Structures are given as C-alpha cells and as structure tokens.
What does this fold into?
Amino acid sequence: MKREYLRWHSPNLKRDMEMLVFGDGGPSVLFFPTRMARFFDYENWGIIGAVQDKITRGQLQLYCVDSIDSESFYNQDIHPAARMMRHLQYEQYILEEVVPRMDNTNGLIVAGCSMGAYHAASLAFRKPELFYKAVCMSGRYDLTRQIGDFRDLFDGYHNEDIYFSMPRQFVRHVHDPVNLAAMRNIEIIIAIGETDPFIDDNREFDALLWDKGIEHQFPIWEGYAHRPRYWRQMVHLYL
It folds into this structure.
C-alpha cells in the first residue's frame, strides 16, 4: 500500500500543516479527523487498515488531513467570532491547498468521524459541486446547540458566518434549484449509533434532508457506535 507523508507551510493558516496520503488509484477521499485529533490517528486506530484491501487494489485513495479545532472551535481564549474566522481560514486551506493536491481522476469523496463528520457535511453542502459522495459517521451538524455534555461551541453568540457553516441551519433555507440539484446529486451516508448523544440531532437532520428532497442513507447502528472499532466497520461498508 502506497503511503506518502506531506508537509508544507500554509499561506491561509500561516503555519505548517501535515497530511498522510494512502493509495494511488480510485476515488479520492478527503478524510477529516475527529475532535482535535491528528492526521495520523486514523492510521493508528486501524481505520486505514480496514480499507487497506481497497487501497492496495487501486480502488480508493485517502487524504488524511490535520485539524486545527483547538485554534478555532475549542479555543476559549478568543471571541466566538474569531473562532469562526479561524475555522473559515481552515476551510480555505482545505479548498485552496488540499483539494488541488488531490487526484480528481475518479471523483472526490468527503468523509469524517465525530467532529470530522461535521467538517465533511459542512463542506459537502456548501460546495456540493466538488464531491459525488459524503460519508458522515457519528457527527453533529449544528455546533451552536448544547447536546448533553457537549456545549454550544460559540457560547450563545451567532452571526452570518456561523449560520452558513452549520448544515442543520442553512440547508433548511436553501431554495435555489441549482444549489438543491447539486446537493441532491451527492450520495450521502449519515451513520450514527442508537445511543449516541447526537442521535436526536441526526434524526432531525435526516428529516430536514428528506424535506428538501435530498435522498440519503441513514443507518442507525446498535449501541453507542462512537468509537474507532465501529468506525473501522463503517469505513469498510461505506467508503
């Protein structure tokens, strides 16, 4: 299995960023890490190994990007508006520096687990023309809501940038037929455990997507299913 380590200085983020690339054929997967995790965690957790057969056969390429969640959503030392602005800089890094490095010969997939699922969904619904498939596992899709022990990451603050970055908020108000058609063209999989704390958020997002005529799969797994051992199974099934 081909494995490549990349590091460069990001002009968007004004810091060095790292990435691991696995494979050299098939659709390319932009794979976002979990909450405040690193670009190498999916490899360490055996999640890359779960699809090694597809990678080796040239059926899949994975681009495991790093996160800056500790500088954006989870940075309590800055104002919520600044947290959002740092996230938007990260998004520009993804769009302007990572995506152009990806092999688009066989199309692009976006995926992620936990917080990575949020990143995947946010990007897929904001830039639906880029991806033909989105795989979101164990995620939540509105970071302004407190869900159990998971707090509102903006402490009650709200602005337009936050609104347009929360899929459960902005998708509801999309009426433009061109944008809706692009969203409807994506193969969408939203997987969640039945006792996951985000289950109600996922059920509401599922209903919202159907209301907008956006077909998708919504598999609900037995139990909590918010752990690497479940994600190993999910990536094997859904990627």
